[in-house]
Every structure is written in structure tokens, then in C-alpha cells.
Task: inverse folding
């Protein structure tokens, strides 16, 4: 790698980090701007439904996205041929359509079987639509081609439109159904604009959805990444869904509001990890020695950044509870302080998973850990949340994440020791 190409790579990574940060920060910040208004005009039941809807949508989007933001990004980033890139896009989009069809099961279940949605069935449909629209948005393409400025601008514009719409349309609890239309339209426009641009740039005219075999190829390629993301969602985003089934609406509001605050603090850490992933993937083939050094440096930065956030959250949690939520969410400050300990764990987990196991094509090892952690999280979360509500689920989340850090670290240490002995 020449000096010029090195600096060009750093500049490209910096842009990717910035744009990815904007995308996720706006996506997570938007609900807080809305919460400040909604908590004043909605009933406590409606507010809990809104929190639960956003949690379900996030969980669904993980299923539809399927890990293509990693697997498809990896394929496109290493592909210079237009026809090959076009084929990858077609395969990925057909796969997302297939996955979206499967999520109809969730729509039926949420409409007919979830007590949280029973007074407001339109919000079950909203959760499904928003989850699908986020999932099928082709962020992977713009990430792989280092042109994330358009997604970032669309997210900012969509956020501003949503905020303006809330101030203009939502005056009291009777306007609750109007919020569903606004949220769906914004996500619909963002998806369509990005998909259209991707199709035009790669001369994709129409998708033949009957070519299911092409979608299956993409599903097979991204299977390991999907299992990692789907499994990890069981002890992250699924927590709110589980909590809604075993505890009270108040607990859902407390945990859901706290979790959103924690995810805002994770935005920059997560997006730095995703943005530097293509670079680490290239170093694997071009400069293994530099890759070894950069891995150590990155782990140090991620761990330090995560630990720095803990005292920040502890100090700000009372202000967040009183100013942002008007003191209407019980035990919010306590839940935030418990959840603060999950930040460094997730930061380290993301770095280890992407920069070590995914780059080295050893996702199967991460899968074994996640498939072990997921059922433990469900069982532990069920009993703790049933007895201790939101605080019980928060404790479960923290414990599971740190257990995974320990297991990943042990595996990496064992692999390094094994290679040293055999070299």
C-alpha cells in the first residue's frame, strides 16, 4: 500500500464513519425529540404502545436486513465488475423480499395475539411496515461504495419532516393514529429514493421475484452473519418484546426509554466498527502485519470509549429522567445506570466479532457462543423481568453481554496461543 493510497483509504473511512454516524444518530435521536412532545399529549397506554412499536420494528428490521450490511458490503467492496455487482444487488434484494414475506407471520401474531397492540391494531401494522422498510433499505450498497452522503441527508430530512409533522398534527391523544401515517411515509420515501439510485447506477431495470434461487444464493452467503445478528437480537432488541409479554406497560416504557438512551451512546462506537470493517477486510489480503497491529489498537480504543461513557450516563441520568421525560417514567434513572455497564461490553463485542472473527471468516465460532447465550438470555430475562420488571431485564442484558466478551476473548487468546505453538 503506497503512502497516497493509505491516506486516501483513511479519508474514505473517515467519510464513511461520519455518514454512518449521522444515519444512526438521527434514527435514534428522532424518537427523543418525539418523546418530549408525545409524553405530554398521549396517554400512558399510548406512550407504551409507541415505545413497544419502535422496539418491534427494530427487531424486525434486523431479520429483514439479515446481516447484508456486512455480507453484501463485503462482496460488493471486493468486486470491480459492473455485471458481478449487479448480480449481487439482484440476489440481495430478492432475498430481502423473501425475508419480508416471512415477517407476515409477525404481523398476524402481533395483530391477533399481542395484548399491547389489542387496543390499537394499526400500530401492529406500523411496527411491521417500519421494520420491513428499514430492513429492505439498501444501506449495504452505499456503504460498500463509500457514498453514504445521500442516506445521511435523507435521514436528516426525514427526521426534520417527522418532527414538523408531529408539531403540526399531533395535538392530543385523539391524533394518535395520524402518527402512524407520518412514520410510515417517511421511511417509505427514504427506501424508495435509495433503491432507485442503486438500480440506476447499476443498470438494474426490474427484479424477477420468481427467481427465488438467486435470493437463496444471497441468503446462503450471509447465513453466518445472519445467525450472529439474529442470535444477538434475542438478548438485545428482543428484550423489550419479551418484557411486553411478561410484565406491565409501565415496565415496557421504562426499559424501552432507557434502552433508546443507551443505543444513542452506542451509535458512534458501532458505526466506527462498521465503517472500518471493509478496510480491515482488505488488510487481511494486502498487509497481515498491519492488520495484526491495527486490531490491537482498535480494541484499546473501543474499550476506552465504552468505559468513558459509563460515568457520563451515571451523571446525566437524573437530568434525562426529569428534563426529557418530565419525571413521568418510573425508575428510569436507575435503569439507565444499570444499563450503562453494557456499553463497553457491546463496544468490545462488536470490535472482536467484526475485526477478528468476520475478517478471518470464522463466524461459526461466534455463532456457537451466540446460540449458547440466546436461550440463557430468554430464560434469565423471563424470570428476572417477571419478578423485577424493567430492572430485571436490564440486569440480564448486562450480564449476557459481559459473558460473551469473556468467551470471545478466551477464543482469541486460545487461537493466538495455538498459532504461536505451531509457527
Result:
Amino acid at each position: 500500500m503506497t503512502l497516497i493510497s493509505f491516506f486516501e483509504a483513511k479519508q474514505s473511512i473517515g467519510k464513511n464513519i461520519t455518514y454512518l454516524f449521522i444515519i444512526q444518530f438521527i434514527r435514534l435521536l428522532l424518537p427523543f425529540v418525539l418523546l418530549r412532545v408525545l409524553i405530554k399529549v398521549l396517554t400512558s397506554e399510548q406512550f407504551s404502545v409507541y415505545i413497544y412499536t419502535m422496539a418491534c420494528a427494530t427487531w424486525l428490521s434486523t431479520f429483514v436486513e439479515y446481516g447484508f450490511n456486512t455480507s453484501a458490503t463485503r462482496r460488493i467492496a471486493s468486486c470491480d465488475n459492473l455485471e458481478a455487482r449487479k448480480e449481487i444487488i439482484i440476489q440481495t434484494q430478492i432475498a430481502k423480499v423473501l425475508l419480508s414475506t416471512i415477517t407476515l407471520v409477525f404481523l398476524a401474531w402481533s395483530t391477533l395475539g399481542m395484548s399491547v397492540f389489542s387496543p390499537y391494531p394499526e400500530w401492529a401494522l406500523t411496527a411491521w411496515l417500519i421494520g420491513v422498510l428499514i430492513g429492505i433499505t439498501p444501506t449495504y450498497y452505499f456503504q460498500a461504495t463509500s457514498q453514504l452522503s445521500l442516506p445521511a441527508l435523507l435521514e436528516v430530512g426525514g427526521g426534520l419532516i417527522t418532527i414538523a409533522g408531529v408539531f403540526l398534527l399531533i395535538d392530543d391523544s385523539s391524533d394518535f393514529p395520524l402518527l402512524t401515517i407520518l412514520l410510515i411515509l417517511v421511511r417509505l420515501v427514504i427506501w424508495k429514493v435509495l433503491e432507485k439510485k442503486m438500480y440506476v447506477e447499476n443498470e438494474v431495470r426490474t427484479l424477477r421475484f420468481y427467481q427465488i434461487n438467486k435470493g437463496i444464493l444471497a441468503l446462503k452467503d450471509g447465513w453466518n452473519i445472519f445467525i450472529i445478528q439474529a442470535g444477538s437480537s434475542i438478548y438485545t432488541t428482543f428484550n423489550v418484546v419479551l418484557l411486553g409479554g411478561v410484565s406491565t406497560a409501565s415496565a415496557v416504557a421504562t426499559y424501552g426509554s432507557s434502552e433508546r438512551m443507551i443505543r444513542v451512546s452506542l451509535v458512534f462506537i458501532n458505526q466506527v466498527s462498521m465503517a472500518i470493517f471493509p478496510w480491515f477486510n482488505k488488510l487481511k489480503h494486502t498487509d497481515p502485519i498491519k492488520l495484526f497491529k491495527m486490531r490491537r489498537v482498535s480494541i484499546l480504543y473501543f474499550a476506552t470509549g465504552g468505559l468513558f461513557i459509563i460515568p457520563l450516563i451515571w451523571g446525566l441520568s437524573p437530568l434525562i429522567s426529569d428534563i426529557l421525560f418530565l419525571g413521568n417514567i418510573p425508575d428510569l434513572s436507575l435503569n439507565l445506570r444499570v444499563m450503562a455497564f453494557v456499553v463497553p461490553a457491546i463496544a468490545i463485542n462488536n470490535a472482536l466479532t467484526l475485526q477478528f472473527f468476520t475478517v478471518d471468516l470464522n463466524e461459526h465460532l461466534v455463532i456457537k457462543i451466540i446460540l449458547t447465550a440466546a436461550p440463557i438470555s430468554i430464560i434469565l430475562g423471563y424470570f428476572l423481568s417477571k419478578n423485577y420488571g424493567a430492572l430485571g431485564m436490564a440486569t440480564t442484558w448486562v450480564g449476557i453481554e459481559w459473558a460473551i466478551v469473556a468467551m470471545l476473548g478466551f477464543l482469541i487468546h486460545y487461537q493466538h496461543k495455538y498459532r504461536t505453538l505451531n509457527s
User: Anything to note?
Assistant: The longest helix spans residues 363-421. The chain has a mean pLDDT of 83.
